[in-house]
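Minutes, project check-in
Item: structure for the 116-residue chain
Input as provided by the requester:
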Amino acid sequence: MLIASKYEEIYAPEISDFVYMTDNAYTREKMLKMESEILRGLNFNMTAPSSLSYLERFVKLSQSDDLVMNFARYITELTLMQVELYKWRPSLIAASAIYVARKVLKRAEPWSPLMI
């Protein structure tokens, strides 16, 4: 729970909260030691980046508006349902979704002089 809350929550609970929840069955030091062992056992590989995480970053870089973002997100989510598209890198899928969204919505290319 400690690792998951640190990973998912904006404001993760304090370790003392987890000690309290276990009715002091574990000490702060034991929890920190176990957290360290679990993370080392996973080689700190908790998740792989998805095309949606790349999409958020690329939208900012391309200075796209919310409509482009939402359309690109829709395109990206459609690709997640197509198993044959899993061979492509998530970053390529995200970049392609933004490109298609900008083309369909007739936005300027991110590399065009209009964007500079």
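Outcome recorded: The chain is about 60% helix and 0% strand.
No further action items on this chain.
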